[in-house]
Design a protein that fits this description.
The protein has 144 residues and is α+β, with helices and mostly antiparallel strands. The protein has a seven-stranded antiparallel β-sheet with strand order 2-1-5-6-7-4-3, sandwiched between helices. Helix content is 23%, strand content 27%. It is built from three helices and seven strands. The protein has a single domain, classed as Electron Transport, Fmn-binding Protein, Chain A (Pnp Oxidase, Chain A), CATH 2.30.110.10. The chain is globular and about 50 Å long.
Length: 144
Amino acid sequence: MSNAPGSTPPAPSRPHMPESYGVPTGSEGLLPWSYVTGRMAAARYYWIGTSRPDGRPHTMPTWGVWLDDTLYFGGSPETRWARNLAANPRVSVHLENAEEVVILEGSVTKLTEANADPALLTRLDDAYEAKYNMRHGTPFWRVR
């Protein structure tokens, strides 16, 4: 999920629930994109949901950084979730707090030294170091 400079922020929406749940249907009370960006930037852990090759879901927490209104996370290509994303780039991401919910849905792009801007990779490593006290290195996955 990205909101590039000069682009229109994503439109907020409500979950699709049966009427009996009492979830309002209007736009009153919907939170602005700035709320999402603040929560994503402040989060330490991001839960990522992927699909295994046989369709079974797989959800794991991981570290990540929110940079330029975009989520980047990383990890070994040997992990189950990374292998899942290599086969199917669709992903859902949510934060730990179930009362102040932020959920992103999109697709990932794997970033490596071969296909990413070196300046971006340096910025990502700098952001990881500031947040987690370590440099990450590639690969990173970008959620759009």
